[in-house]
Structure to design on (330 residues):
């Protein structure tokens, strides 16, 4: 029996499920929208609320103003902290600047912050696995700067030094590749056999689920497309995971218009997913783009159910405009 030539096989798309918004991103985006509805524009947001170009541009049109630092916000205004979390010094900057604040930090990031504070109080050396310069890493490190040192992959392990090898714990950025993180952990355990693991997984459920789905797609696809922004760590890791799982090619795009038709040459099966900060409208646009080029058969590849939701920041239940005005009068 002869194999069907690739050019005559039916073109199809394997669509990952779950994909797109996680509970923390959904909470953060809704928090900005609710704040604009309740208090009116402008609502200032320190850094991008989530790492997605489309989301940021959409919220800007509604009246959100994104700033690099809380110190840029005029006194008497409202500033929101992004889903990635901030260090205690940033809260203090907002207080000194006479700003009302809304903390939209993802609860799973807050969990890591609390772990850092607890282990620092117990005088542990904390090895934070993550990417240097990422907002989440900066925020977590700021919770216990005298106890935390960053480990940016297995190659960093050789230079790690601790005070007492029997009192060392590792924590991690929530959006990393699970496999790469465990490779770093294994290297750390080899150097520090008494290394303690965090009480529960730091890498968030949504990151893990999206990586699992990508692995499933990669085993069946000729090409994987991940919708997400270049500064989105979890989206970048999905591309890495797809390539490590053996797919011939994988690319990250913000919009369908960024897809290069040359990528489709000889491709009959396209795997498609999106990062945890990506609205599904962008995935639907890619599906439409692919359909116009003959990829009309869409098959859902489901690897997990997600039902977790988080309540909105408690600050939205207060009159923050009045609070901000009162701060200026003090």
């Amino acid at each position: 029996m002869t194999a069907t030539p690739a050019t005559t096989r039916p073109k199809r798309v394997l669509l990952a499920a779950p994909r797109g918004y996680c509970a923390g991103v959904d909470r953060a985006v809704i928090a900005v929208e609710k704040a604009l509805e309740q208090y009116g524009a402008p609502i200032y947001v320190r850094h991008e609320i989530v790492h997605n170009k489309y989301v940021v541009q959409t919220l800007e049109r509604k009246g959100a103003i994104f700033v690099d630092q809380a110190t840029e916000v005029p006194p008497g205004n409202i500033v929101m902290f992004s889903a990635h979390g901030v260090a205690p010094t940033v809260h203090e900057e907002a207080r000194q600047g006479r700003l009302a604040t809304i903390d939209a930090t993802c609860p799973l990031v807050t969990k890591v912050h609390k772990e850092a504070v607890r282990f620092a109080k117990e005088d542990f050396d904390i090895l934070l696995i993550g990417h240097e310069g990422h907002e989440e890493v900066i925020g977590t490190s700021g919770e216990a700067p005298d106890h935390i040192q960053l480990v940016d992959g297995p190659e960093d392990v050789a230079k790690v030094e601790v005070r007492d090898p029997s009192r060392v714990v590792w924590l991690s950025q929530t959006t990393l590749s699970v496999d790469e993180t465990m490779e770093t952990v294994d290297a750390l355990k080899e150097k520090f056999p008494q290394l303690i693991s965090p009480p529960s997984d730091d890498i968030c459920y949504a990151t893990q689920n999206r990586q699992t789905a990508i692995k499933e797609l990669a085993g069946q696809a000729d090409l994987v497309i991940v919708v997400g922004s270049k500064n989105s760590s979890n989206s970048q890791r999905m591309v890495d995971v797809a390539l490590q799982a053996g797919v011939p090619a994988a690319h990250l795009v913000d919009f369908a218009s960024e897809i290069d038709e040359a990528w489709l040459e000889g491709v009959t099966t396209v795997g498609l997913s999106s990062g945890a900060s990506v609205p599904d409208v962008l995935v639907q646009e890619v599906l439409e783009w692919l359909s116009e080029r003959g990829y009309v058969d869409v098959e859902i590849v489901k690897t997990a159910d997600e039902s977790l939701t988080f309540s909105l920041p408690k600050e939205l239940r207060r009159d923050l405009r009045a609070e901000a005005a009162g701060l200026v009068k003090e």
Q: What stands out?
A: Residues 23-39 form the longest helix (17 residues). The chain has ten helices and twelve strands. The mean pLDDT is 95. The longest strand covers residues 12-17.
